[in-house]
Amino acid sequence: MNLSRKLFLGFIGIALLGIILFGYITYQTALETRSEELTKSTTDNAMQLASILEGSDPARVRQLLRNFQTRQQVLPYNLFIVDRQQAIIFNTLPNEIVAELTPPLLASDANHGHANLKETSLVWSSQSIPNSELTLYLLRQTEKSGFIPFLKHSGLPLVIASLILLWLAIWCAMFLSSLYRRLDQQRRELEFQKRHDSLTGLSNRNSLVEQTELRLERSLPKGECIALLIIDIKRLKEINDTLGHYAGDALLCLIAERLNSVIRENDILARIVSNEFAILLDRISEESVVATTTRIQETLSDGYEIEGHEFYLGASIGVALYPEHALDAINLIRHGEMAMYAAKRIGADITIYDETHKTSTLEQLKLVSDLRTDLENKNIQLYFQPKVNLDNGQAVSLEALARWEHPDHGYIATSRFIHIAENTGLINQLTYWVMEQALKCSQQLQQQGQSLNVAINLSMWNLQDLELVEYLQSLIDKYNVEPSRITLEITETAMMVNHKRALHTLHRLHELGIVLSIDDFGTGYSSMTYLKQLPLGEVKIDKSFIKSMHKQPDDSSMVRAIIDLAHDLGLTVVGEGVESREIAEMLRELGCDQGQGSYYADAMPFEALLGWLERFNQPTRE
């Protein structure tokens, strides 16, 4: 029986007890009142009768009382009269009753009271007859219990009052029971909110810590462990910034559903931060941890559709094991987070914790802060790598590449700091800076008579930027650069976030006259789809095919097929990773239009590029 029902029944029980107590008190009060009334009435009658008998001798008393009794036929009371010697001179009671009553009444110092017989209860009053030596005792009979008269006079009002009290008690009990249920529901809701995420309904960080501690207290079978997975969902912030938090929230709920579908019933799924989830795999072998983590990664990589937009998200997963990596919940979670940050830093899908991640995480935080500072202070450098026409050997285009020289760590790998910029929302600021510097250098080259195209790389998040096209148009007007001299390079992953918006942005750029290029072509599953959908002008074959084409016939065939397909679609073809004359010649024979790689030149600062162009762009190159 729940507390609400107990409260209801208890209140009704108290009400019934109150009714009984009320009835008893009322009954006792009625008895006392009736007794007082009878006593007073008897006393008054005794005084009246004594007044009538004033000054009478015993004989006259007997005569008067017999006459009075004859006229009244039935007296409403009984009486007896005694003289100074307490001898009875007149009596209306049976002799046996008088014999039983007389001794206690005559011995009493009171002038009124109650006397109880076996079947009768009497109220008596004594009164001395004035101017006489006689004493009058008047007795009035009443029912012993008085309950029947009480019911006759007070029963109906008492029943009505009891019913009203009972109705009020039931109403109050129902009100209090309902109030308790509401308060209890609010308490449960507050308790749930304290331990769960309000959006997805999953456990929160506090609940995860508590449940993890409970699991760690149990002994583990040999060969099993407890694994904690920290999952960071990539690109969620940019989706919030692009489509709003409603779309981001809907996406988080879909992610929670997918994760729930992968784990076992005894595992724990929690949302610990805005875009981070945690999964506790209980009593599992290390081999199963790897298999489960891989399955989670595959599940998350499938497309999501929100508000008519299709998204492809990635995830960085950090893994920490008990008892290998930590012996308590707090450190297990902390080490899982360190492993996750390490996975983000190196671009890995899954990383298992090791001790080096402690220092790596601190280093990562400092790099984020330093990158922000250097972007604001314009301490990033811009390098250029030429693209060469394979037919005449002349440089025809330059790819602008950002370089970051850290004061403590030297040059940071481009993939690493670009990854940092994408994950911290700095990518648009970085891209805007690269665009302006590249077009500024292009203007200087034009002024020196060098008609070279300039290529700029775009991140997938740049294509979600609503101000990108207008900003680029303002730079074109500012530096007076022909839009056809600008190439914007995108990778296949650029279309994985809000495909429709990315496609719209690319079409607007194409309408400006800008050349669009697919970078690293051939490495993604949707390469052919992009050739059909996007307004492209150029294709860059990934260097993984180019480097080994002189050794691997399959790669050479793949390169030939890409070149032929691109030419059939009217696209310019660029081969990346040209590191030798042999590869350059093979590409030229296959019909490739341009080559780019260390055989011609590595990326270099603008000042070094000017000298290189003077040496390289001669009428012929041996």
UniProtKB/TrEMBL annotation:
Record-linked SUPFAM superfamilies: EAL domain-like, Nucleotide cyclase
Identification of the protein by name: Diguanylate cyclase (GGDEF)-like protein
Positions of transmembrane segments: 7-27, 158-180
Annotated signal sequence range: none
All copies of domain EAL, residue ranges: 364-617
Pfam families listed in its UniProt record: EAL, GGDEF
NCBIfam families xref list: GGDEF
Domain GGDEF: from-to ranges: 224-355
Sections of the chain in a coiled coil: none
Keywords: Membrane, Transmembrane, Transmembrane helix
GO molecular function, a single term: cyclic-guanylate-specific phosphodiesterase activity
